[in-house]
Specification:
This is DUF3291 domain-containing protein. InterPro entries: CrtA-like. The chain is of the alpha+beta class. It is 28% helix and 40% strand.
């Protein structure tokens, strides 16, 4: 069973140029760590929108085992990544289910889904959605983002944490959210008309050339997540 970590790094004002430059360095030379089988360094947007937030970045890693992740978070490479931060929080996640592709693969696919334990109905869950938006669909997609953002805000009492991130501005977008329990996610995703309407439009208008959805059990949270 793979372990997924999502580290949210908030940088001080004087460190933000260096943090932004990390994105370019990462593309040229991804992190080398034993047991790291998939990784992304992602920029963020203010309030899930078009305006970039140069203070906050996310490192996502998929690990063969917990020991590999633990070793990385004690390494010089990780210390270099978090240099200049004022706040760092890491989600430790176990995949429950996922479908779709990210760069032509599903990094959260479990080889033995039957081995996964049944999710606790009272425990927090995390959800990740990721998509590459077709260029012709960009205006239509972004026109509907405020509507989707409002629907999320309507459920803020059940939302522990949420952030909009991306690899390529405008085109490759991702959301990561943590909910109080599975029922809260289901209420938002399947019983809320506004969200269902946006999902319907993605299919009808073929906004995405590639997409992925994944749900996770939250094993623990280290550090402090942004408010």
């Amino acid at each position: 069973m793979p372990l997924v970590t999502v580290t949210i790094l908030h940088y001080a004002a004087l460190a933000r140029f260096r943090a932004f430059a990390n994105m370019g360095r990462f593309l040229m030379k991804p992190i080398q760590a034993d047991g790291l089988r998939f990784q992304k360094l992602l920029g963020s947007g203010l309030n899930f929108g078009l305006v970039p937030d140069f203070s906050t970045y996310v490192f996502l890693g998929v690990w063969e085992e917990q020991a590999a992740a633990r070793h990385f978070f004690q390494s010089d490479g990780y210390r270099d990544l978090q240099r200049g931060t004022t706040q760092v929080g890491t989600l430790y996640l176990q995949p429950q289910r996922s479908h779709g592709l990210w760069d032509g693969q599903n990094p959260f696919m479990t080889t033995k889904p039957e081995a996964a334990s049944s999710p606790d109905p009272t425990a927090p869950v995390a959800v990740l959605t990721r998509a590459t938006i077709r260029p012709r669909a960009l205006p239509d997609f972004w026109r509907h983002v405020p509507q989707a953002r409002q629907r999320l805000n309507d459920h803020r009492n059940d939302l522990v944490f949420g952030i909009g991130v991306g690899e390529v501005p405008l085109v490759q977008q991702c959301t990561i959210s943590v909910w109080r329990n599975p029922a809260a996610v289901d209420q938002y995703a399947y019983r809320q008309s506004g969200h269902k309407e946006v999902v319907r439009l993605t299919r009808q208008r073929r906004w995405y050339s590639e997409e992925l959805f994944a749900r996770f059990s939250v094993l623990r949270i280290d550090g402090q997540l942004p408010a």
